[in-house]
Structure formats: C-alpha cells, structure tokens
C-alpha cells in the first residue's frame, strides 16, 4: 500500500513538473500596433501558427500608441511596437523606450530604413501621392507641386486626412525641409482654399470617386486596393515634380520595448515580418513596397527605383518631432 502511494506521489509530482515545464516553455508577447487590425491580424495569426508564440494585440492610431507608451514608460506591458511611420518610431527612440535590435535583423534592411540607434527597423515602404478623378480632371490640370494646391482653381476640390499618422509624418518632413513658417502657411492656405478633411486615406479615395473632391493626398497603396477589385474605378494617381515634398517615401516599422520581459520572442516577430512570407504579405495584400532584397513589388506599383528618384531627400531619423506637428495641426485648426 505504501509502495503504491509512493508511486502515485511520484507520478503526480512528475505530472506537475511537466505541466510547469510546459507553462515555462509557452511564450506570448504583447504588440501595440498603430497599423490597423484589418492589415495585421492575418500576419499575426500566421506568426502564431508558425512559431507557437501567442500575440496579444492592442490596436490604435500610431500617435495614440506613441503617447500610450510614453505615458506607461517602464510599466508598459508592450513588447513590440508597430508604427505607421518613422516619425512615431523616432519619437519613441528619442524617449529612450526602444531597445537595440540585433544585427541579424537590422542587416536585412537598407541602412536608410534603420534608425541610427539601431532600435527600430522598417518593415515596408509607402509613398505619398496625388490621387485624382479620372472623370473630372484633365492631365493638363494636374499641379506640379503640392504647394500648387493652394491655387484658387483647386478651391474646395482637395482632401487630406490630418488625423492620419502618415499625413502627420509628411507634415513633420515638410517642417524639417521647408521650415516652420512655410509649412504653417501652407496648412493655413489649404484650409482657406476649402480643403476637406477625411478621417482616413480610404475615405479620400472614396470621396474622389463619389465626386466630393477631385484631388487627394493619400499613401499610394490605398488606390491599388480599389483597382484590384475594379480596374475601371474612376480614380488615378501620380507623382508631383521630382523632389517635391509631396512625393515623400516613408516607412512602416517596428521596435522592441526596453521594458519587454520577452525580448527574444519580440525579436522573432520583427524577424518574421522581414522574411519572404512577411514581405510578400505586405506587397501582395497591403500593396506596400518591400524593404528586403529579392522581394518584387506588386505589378500595380511600377518601378520602386523610379518612385525613389521622384522622392525628396528626407532623413527619416530626423522626423521624430511628432508632438510639434500635432501642436501645429491643432494651432491651425485641423485637429
């Protein structure tokens, strides 16, 4: 009897040890994502399936995510941050909240798209563009520069999304390259010229198609999503003249929080986003440009080199003053 009890006790102890071992092995991370649920859920699900690492997800606008992380500081439960633009990532880096990434991750991406501190890395590229109505706009009527949109002939015909992180990064880049006064004056002149504010880029494209506006300032990939569904969708897009700030190329990117207690698993997620599988998802499903060599852009993109030649020179490490841009947008009455 005593022998049986000892055997049972040993089996129970072994079972408990095994269970505790499984708990220790089980991994999960928390991601604060400024990229939308509709964009990222599929990729997070694939990562969970391929690695066994559970991803807890918190979605919000990129600016709100950055503010949340700064407010939480070392107490944040976040392990990874995904942002829509380099400006928000730069502001988190400046605040000392991001940890250096291993070279095995940063070396996979062109140094142009890695922070100087090595604490964030691009996961995809996106370009600012001019979208316009193919039904109501003659190509001879297209503006050469984003600054031309303040001309009275465009009054009430233009839309943008001042609450969108990509637009805010564009304004930050304009402040950096053109100066505070010129940027403020452009925003005031756009407002005086009847610019219409939309909640997001998708609504800009829909507004053009519906006849609410004739021109819009979105990222390039939003129109592609409509064109894939309907090749006759009545909106086209183009670049401004070479070097114009309206052609800015920005990044979506990711970093690991210094406060993360799951840094190794967090790095695995960022590494996964840079695999062929992750890059093909960004290209084939979101219609962004890849950041890893060997992955081809979507056929609807056109040549990436041409897009980069048209883009202005913007140091993505220098557009971290998100707070200054938010303050300016509030000051001119656009937020």
UniProtKB/TrEMBL annotation:
Tree of life domain: Bacteria
GO cellular component: outer membrane-bounded periplasmic space
InterPro entries: Ferric-bd
Signal sequence extent: 1-26
A molecular function GO annotation: metal ion binding
CDD domains, per database record: PBP2_Fbp (cd13543)
Stated family: Belongs to the bacterial solute-binding protein 1 family.
Protein name (database record): Iron(III) transport system substrate-binding protein
Biological source species: Algisphaera agarilytica
């Amino acid at each position: 009897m005593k022998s049986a009890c000892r055997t049972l006790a040993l089996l129970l102890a072994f079972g408990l040890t095994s269970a505790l071992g499984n708990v220790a092995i089980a991994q999960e991370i928390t991601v604060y994502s400024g990229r939308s649920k509709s964009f990222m859920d599929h990729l997070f699900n694939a990562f969970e399936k391929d690695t066994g690492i559970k991803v807890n997800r918190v979605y919000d606008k990129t600016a709100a995510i950055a503010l949340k992380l700064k407010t939480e500081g070392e107490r944040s439960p976040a392990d990874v941050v995904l942002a829509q633009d380099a400006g928000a990532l730069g502001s988190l880096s400046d605040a000392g909240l991001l940890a250096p990434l291993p070279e095995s991750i940063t070396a996979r991406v062109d140094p142009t798209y890695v922070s100087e501190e090595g604490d964030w890395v691009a996961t995809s590229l996106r370009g600012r563009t001019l979208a316009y109505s193919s039904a109501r706009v003659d190509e001879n009527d297209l503006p050469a520069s984003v600054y031309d949109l303040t001309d009275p002939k465009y009054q009430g015909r233009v839309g943008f999304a001042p609450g969108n992180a990509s637009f805010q990064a564009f304004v930050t880049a304009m402040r950096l390259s053109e100066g505070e006064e010129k940027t403020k004056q452009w925003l005031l002149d756009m407002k005086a010229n009847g610019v219409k504010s939309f909640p997001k880029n998708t609504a800009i494209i829909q507004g053009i198609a519906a006849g609410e506006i004739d021109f819009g300032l979105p990222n390039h990939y939003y129109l592609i999503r409509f064109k894939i569904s309907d090749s006759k969708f009545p909106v086209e897009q183009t670049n401004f003249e070479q070097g114009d700030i309206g052609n800015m190329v920005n990044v979506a990117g990711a970093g690991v929080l210094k406060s993360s207690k799951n840094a190794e698993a967090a790095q695995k997620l960022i590494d996964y986003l840079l695999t062929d599988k992750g890059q093909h998802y960004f290209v084939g499903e979101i219609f962004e440009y890849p950041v890893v060599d060997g992955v081809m852009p979507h056929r609807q993109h056109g040549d990436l080199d041409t897009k980069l030649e048209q883009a202005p020179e913007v140091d993505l490490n220098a557009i971290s003053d998100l707070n200054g841009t938010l303050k300016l947008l509030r000051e001119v009455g656009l937020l």
